[in-house]
Amino acid sequence: SIPNKWTSRADQPTLDIVVSLYGEPLDQTERMFKELRALSSFRDLEVNFHVYTKDLSADIALLREKLATPHVTILHNVGREGGTYMAHIVRQYDDLARHTMFVQADMHDYEAARARIVDYFRPNTGVLPLGITESCDCIKCVDSWDESREFPRIEELYVGLNGKFCPGRLALSYLGQIIVSATRIRSRTHDTYAYLKQILEAGPSHFIHDDPRQDEFKDDESNPYFGHTIERSYMVLWGC
């Protein structure tokens, strides 16, 4: 028989919680970790926290001790949280947990996110957004509450990922917090994530920084405008 290329942690009840950290209070983050571990939906899982900090002066030993995880990594402060998530996938692609939860250390609307996990997370979950969900017209994707905020790269992402024209509407996710299965992550190639990471972390001379944007959005290496496109596009990336 042909061996399964990915017989490993993804075949066990495992969950990796990937946390993008910068300067959030450690006591707050420690409390969040304890509360997440205690969720009824996670009690039967082997839960591991992977902390990525973009504070180059961070005390790794202190973070490991306070947050009770050996998995603490310093990254350069580029690419927003999307760059952090892509970095984790690129590193762990062949050793993913059955599910991965991507969040920032200061989760948005934390109580509502926890409630969504308890109400909707199951062993067969493919993708579960933990923030706001909306939809947009694929050809002209705008935020529903402000039509001046347009994200034309979302259409390009859909076409590039799927090799076909856009449907009428696309599901969007907001706030950069989501749970996804290893199966859904691996529905895209390792090279896809490496490319998205490269674009998110691109220097100031890269063409991605020439994209038109609205005045309220900044654009630099640590906070690229394209990062807002990725934040909205996880449902597209993972086939929803």
Looking at this protein, list some descriptive labels.
Spore Coat Polysaccharide Biosynthesis Protein SpsA, Chain A, 240 residues, alpha/beta, 10 strands, 34% helix
Task: Describe this structure as you would to a colleague.
The chain is α/β, with parallel strands linked by helices and 240 residues long. It contains 9 helices and 10 strands. It has a domain at 9-130 and 176-204: Spore Coat Polysaccharide Biosynthesis Protein SpsA, Chain A, CATH 3.90.550. It has helices spanning 26-37, 60-67, 80-92, 110-120, 153-162, 182-185, 190-200, 225-232, 234-237, and strands spanning 14-21, 46-53, 72-74, 99-104, 127-129, 133-137, 142-143, 146-150, 169-173, 178-181. α3 runs antiparallel to α7 (190-200). The longest helix has 13 residues, at 80-92. InterPro entries: DUF3431. Pfam families: DUF3431.
